[in-house]
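Troubleshooting entry. The earlier prediction with D-ribose gave an output that would not parse, so I re-checked the input for stray whitespace and re-submitted. Clean input:
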Amino acid sequence: MRIAIGNDHTGVELKKRLLTSVLAPHDVTDLGVHATDSVDYPDQAHLVAERIAAGQADRGILICGTGIGMAMAADKHPGIRAARCDEPFSAELSRLHNDANVLCLGARMLGIEMAERIVEVWLATPFSGGRHTRRVEKIG
Ligand code: RB5
């Protein structure tokens, strides 16, 4: 699975940890940022969303302070279904029911172990299809 990851200044450390743990086995493209100088989170959200929309990545992971701004920005893109998750059950259901293709994490809200578990579950869970296909299509 090809994963594009992006973050603002608040997410640099969490991203580094994820890249060396649960994301290590995956084909990950890191779209930055890499330094903790203050940046604007929509810039990375748009880069990741555009990469998925262009068919160059299968899934995206976005990290900002809360995950909220990243989800708002990514969801502006047609075909992007971004889910902000702060525990594994939401991450699982965002895949099973919503076919979420972008996971948004809040670096200021999550400990590393919780973030790792959320990412593991989200990457491993398939879309369940069936009646959910019609509902996802209605999202537009
Ligand atoms: C940056 O201070 C913060 O606003 C950003 O990381 C994010 O939480 C926005 O949703």
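This one parsed fine. The chain has a mean pLDDT of 98.
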